[in-house]
Request: fold
Amino acid sequence: MTRRWLPYPILSALLLLIWLLLNQSIAPGTILLGALLGVALAKVFGLLRPPKARVRNYPLLGLLFVRVVVDIVRSNIAVARIILRRDSRMQSGFVAIPLTLTDHYGLAVLACIITSTPGTIWVSYDSSANILLIHVLDLVDEASWIDSIKQRYERPLLEIFQ
Reply:
């Protein structure tokens, strides 16, 4: 009975939490509206019938999470330095990265990692050629970016999802 009304309780709770954070309020009306939205959107998500993700290595997922948090902090510092020094020699550019990863959940996590790291953004993904295109704020060495993405993120994601 509970599963019928609340098919994805964790998703509903996360949606409620995000709603409360965005509204910066814990007023009863805000909580009620957030709870209704959380339940309704989780039910809509259930209608999509997404395939279940198969995580094969939870400890590695935890290590990857820590690595990403550290990388985000380091990137924030690097981007702040770039902005503060206003270096005219800085060159941004695009990097095409050939991927081995094909799992949809792994690609989604990789997109979140790259986009949440300051100084980089996921631009496009060509599924037929399996090539990822990213934009880098301070592009010094294209080969090092390719190696970094493949070793730091793609390799663990392959072990986690495939």
